[in-house]
């Protein structure tokens, strides 16, 4: 084997490792996010994003009741497998495929009317904001919402049923950094 070939092979391996490291270093959607009411500035819902079968799913992890809201809300307008399921723990976003900081080819449910829209998402480079866009037909005709990453300590505020269902083997005091660490990809998978 020539010295030139060894040098080229070594350079190729270094480039491969560098590319894998850069991809792993990008922030992920996995973790807790908060949607805030644009008019009042108050929290509306928290969403927990997990990886399931290689795709990303966002579930309603906590919601904040407004005056007159029933605490036992269900998705009565849903027409798919989520029909009459409780809002707490409801998969709102499904089928997102990761492409760097972008997530594509998924869908988002509007539990108020049961409509399901195409969806795309984008995590900011610093990992602190998530832009969620739902649309009909063409992405151009959609609407954006910006959600904000919650601190790792927020997991303590989740209902134990959410932790048991979506973070099996974890406790409320478990680290959300573990949730976002995709190097342990099997951890992000839901049990079958």
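-> sequence recovered:
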């Amino acid at each position: 084997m020539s010295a030139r070939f060894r040098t080229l092979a070594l350079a190729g391996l270094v480039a491969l490792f560098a590319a894998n490291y850069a991809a792993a270093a990008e922030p992920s959607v996995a973790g807790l996010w908060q949607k805030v009411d644009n008019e009042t500035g108050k929290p509306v819902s928290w969403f927990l994003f997990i990886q399931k079968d290689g795709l990303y799913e966002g579930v309603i992890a906590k919601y904040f009741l407004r005056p007159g809201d029933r605490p036992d809300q269900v998705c009565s307008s849903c027409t798919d497998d989520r029909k009459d399921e409780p809002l707490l723990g409801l998969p709102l976003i499904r089928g997102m495929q990761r492409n760097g900081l972008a997530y594509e080819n998924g869908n988002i449910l509007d539990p108020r009317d049961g409509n399901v829209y195409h969806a795309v998402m984008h995590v900011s480079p610093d990992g602190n904001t998530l832009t969620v866009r739902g649309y009909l037909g063409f992405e151009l005709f959609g609407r954006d919402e910006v959600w904000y990453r919650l601190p790792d300590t927020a997991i303590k505020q989740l209902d134990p049923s959410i932790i048991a269902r979506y973070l099996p083997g974890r406790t409320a005091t478990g680290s959300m950094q573990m949730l976002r660490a995709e190097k342990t990809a099997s951890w992000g998978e839901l049990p079958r």
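The beta strands are 31-36, 43-52, 55-63, 91-99, 102-110, 115-123, 129-135, 143-149.
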